[in-house]
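User: I'm putting together a teaching handout on how multi-component assemblies are represented. Below are the sequence lines for each component of a complex, exactly as they appear in our records. Could you produce the 3D structure of the whole assembly as structure tokens, so the students can see both representations side by side? Please keep the chain order the same as the input.
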Amino acid sequence: MAEVRAEMVANVWKIVVSEGDAVEEGDTLVILESMKMEIPVIAEDAGTVTKLHIKEGDVVQEGDLIAAIE
Amino acid sequence: MFDSVLVANRGEIARRIIRTVRGMGLRAIAVHSEADADLPFVREADDAVLLGPAHPAQSYLDVDKVLQAARTTGARAVHPGYGFLAENAAFARAVIDAGLVWIGPDPKAIEQMGDKINARNLMEAAGVPVAAGTREPVSDLAQAERAAEEIGYPVMVKAAGGGGGIGMGVARDGESLAKAFEQATRAAARFGGEPAILLERYIERARHVEVQILGLADGTVVALGERDCSVQRRHQKVVEESPSPGVTPELRERMLAAAVRAGQAVGYRGAGTVECLVDADAQDFVFLEMNTRLQVEHPVTELVTGLDLVEHQIRIAAGEVYSVEPRVTGHAIEFRVYAEDPRRFLPGPGKIGVWEEPVGEGVRVDSGYAAGNTVTPFYDPLMAKLCVVGATREEALRRGREAVAAFRVEGPKHNLPFCAELLDHPDFVSGDYDTGLVSRMRSA
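Assistant: Of course. Below is the structure of the complete assembly, with chains in the same order as your input.
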């Protein structure tokens, strides 16, 4: 299982995938927004999104869990 | 002269404006969000009003709340800084309608220049050179494709109502045009701008050079030299210098004259900036856009002219009639200290543990933060502007190296290591660089 974590303090602007979705390596999972910049969070491996730990509008801290991919 | 100024902004620019306002013996009133309550600009103002939550829409962009703050504090004038409401003509009108002095150009000039397509057409009519591009808003991809064919690739695609490089993209063929068009449309919608898209011929290896103008109360417009802003990442400026090392005296004369014509064409009052692209090989230039406000990088102009631009904005807004004979001496460079990692330039907000600014001859720091403050993700990443001035460019570079090395910031990620790297890069040192410099540094 791969854990996807936030690289920086940010607002969750948009969630692109849903739990249960199959994703390919390089797919955008979530778009964060920090300091007027959109930062896509990318799947590093192919798999299935088993859990989304955030919702749109949340503030995430650096290192916070965003999603789990199996 | 009015006796008080409300500063409708935050961070370094609010602090910098407050300094001049208080220096002129006027009362400075800050407005702030919950997230910014501990920042120096709030502390240093004579009065401070909490607007609301961190999100800009609920604080710095909320016109009613800002006007309410002006009423309750008895403010007589409003300075908008840059960004937020600075180029919002409706806000300027609301300020004037409330019986307050608007420290900025006529709302009509803001409107005329805010729409980039209209601005291009207006400038062309005033005899200011413009790049080949669309004269009407482009609203769908098929139209964009036809326009791009006509103009010739590569083209720059941007939102007519956009700014700050957001949503701008270069298209080299039909495929990248679709992507750039989609990106610009999305940015336009998201930042509340007009959904109109503009295409322009993209000049490779161009320098971004802008002219500072000042429209005086008697209607004359003067040019205060140029600033070279070619060191950019994601179409956003990182380092600016004046004079530009890529502009000959002959080209400078033509650019300054064109900038004055641009200002006159809209009856400009106060401080404004005419942005141009310069083809350094051909020593030619085209108009890009006009910013109807104080510019982030105005300190480099202040350092080579000895003028306080905020003071002039205030005196002009107060209707004071006087003349300015600008004289440029020496060389100034500004480094934007951003809360971002120095490799990929991704945001890195955080709590500031250590903040030690460099001091010394020819060093000026305009900062928005101090040790103990937190740089939050809600606003742009600019923490401070480190500016140096010297008799020559060499002296300015040397002072820049020393000042960058002496600036200590711990906590948020920051780009001071990038500034140090740039100061040792042969292209920057020689002055022979263009807007592609930073991406070349990072792709090597």
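A couple of points students might notice: The mean pLDDT of chain A is 93. The domain at 2-69 of chain A is CATH 2.40.50.100 (OB fold (Dihydrolipoamide Acetyltransferase, E2P)).
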